[in-house]
Amino acid sequence: QVQLVESGGGVVQPGGSLRLSCAPSGSIFSISAMGWYRQAPGKQRELVARITSGGTTNYADSVKGRFTISRDNAKNTVYLQMNNLKPEDTAIYYCNVRRVGPAYWGQGTQVTVSS
Asked: CA 107 to CA 95: how far, in whole Å?
């Protein structure tokens, strides 16, 4: 079956940057949108950023101006560029693909922002 392969997580200092990537291991058709969610311990899962099949983007207010979601259609890969990271950004980040039919979820990648 197709799975979402995530990479790019790690440990950085406040103010640092990370670039997450997410790519299906196979073809996924009828995609409506791809997005990044995150969940910190004891907190609800929240939408961080989303990009639709038409290229429209949405961001959580807490990350606007710092995070950028983008796509490389040639590589069939979605990215999340995270700049000026804050300790509050520490969470497990999950890639999501919305489509006609059941959605796909990545396994999650840990992002830790600490001094």
From this structure: 8
